[in-house]
Design a protein that fits this description.
Blueprint (H helix, E strand, L loop, with lengths): L1 H14 L52 E3 L13 E7 L4 H19 L3 E7 L6 H16 L4 H18 L7 H10 L4 H13 L3 H14 L6 E4 L2 E2 L10 H12 L1
Parallel strand pairs: 2-3
Antiparallel strand pairs: 1-3, 2-4, 4-5
Helix pairs in contact: 2-4, 3-4, 3-5, 3-6, 4-5, 5-6
Protein name: Disulfide bond formation protein DsbA
Organism: Actinomyces ruminis
Pfam family, one: Thioredoxin_4
């Protein structure tokens, strides 16, 4: 049954068709993470890219590969020297990614807070959904205008998509759903108003294009793809609320 499910999901990625039509609710991703090999900076996994993206259409804290880094205080653009880098390659329209987020959110917050990891988020329009466009434009506004709410907003839109997917209601894939998630995350009313305008204008389209390019060059074949540095993490091996922590501690004990 699992093999048949994966075959269906691969076909869904190839055709980019949604279950609910124009809304873009595709069953996508793969149950297992992509095999990760050694890499140079700027490829899949590994070190944090240090240079920032520049020019119109890029939030201030976005790196040159399109990634967003969170450090111990959950502030975007911060990091802990010497910490391991947890890279998550995802799409805001991927329900597997939303499930991963729900399972590991508290654990990741703890690992960030004690300086064990830096969180490196790599988003894209892997599933070619309008939801991803809207969320990333909204995130751009939050990063520039209310960065302290960025981590909470990331989680809120993931939770909102889980609800949409569970209801199979494509009509809920709207800018209003995104702004509601922003309000739930504590984003101020004036910033929420800016979010609505940015979605309409595609203000951060350049960031989205950069993320798509990064995914293409890295040959991402499924979301979520998760790397601890250059190491492959099999999603099935870390599929508990403390799975990432257990893996880190197990590797340390083996050393």
């Amino acid at each position: 049954m699992r093999e048949e499910q994966e075959r269906r999901e691969r076909r869904a990625r190839i055709t980019r068709r949604s279950l609910l039509g124009i809304g873009g609710l595709a069953v996508a991703g793969t149950v297992a993470a992509v095999v990760i090999t050694g890499r140079d900076e700027g490829a899949l996994g590994g070190k944090i890219v240090t240079d920032l993206a520049s020019g119109d259409g890029f939030p201030a804290t976005i790196r040159a590969d399109g990634s967003l880094v969170f450090g111990p205080d959950l502030m975007p653009g911060t990091s802990t020297d010497g910490a391991q880098n947890l890279h998550i390659y995802f799409d805001y329209a991927c329900h597997y990614c939303a499930n991963f987020e729900e399972l590991h959110k508290t654990e990741i917050e703890t690992l960030l807070g004690d300086g064990t990891i830096n969180l490196v988020l790599h988003t894209s329009r892997f599933l070619d959904s309008s939801w991803s466009n809207m969320v990333c434009n909204a995130m751009g506004v939050v990063l520039d205008q209310d960065p302290a709410s960025a981590f909470a907003f990331h989680h809120a839109v993931m939770t909102r998509f889980s609800e949409i997917y569970a209801s199979q209601d494509a009509s809920a894939i709207t800018a209003e759903s995104v702004t509601q998630a922003a309000t739930e995350a504590g984003v101020s009313d004036d910033v929420v108003e800016q979010i609505a305008s940015a979605i309409t204008a595609n203000t951060y389209g350049a960031w989205l294009d950069l993320c798509d390019q990064t995914f293409s060059e890295a040959s991402i074949s499924g979301t979520p793809t998760v790397c601890l540095g250059t190491e492959k993490l099999e999603l099935g091996d870390i599929a508990t609320a403390t799975g990432i922590t257990d893996h880190i501690q197990g590797a340390a004990a083996a050393d």
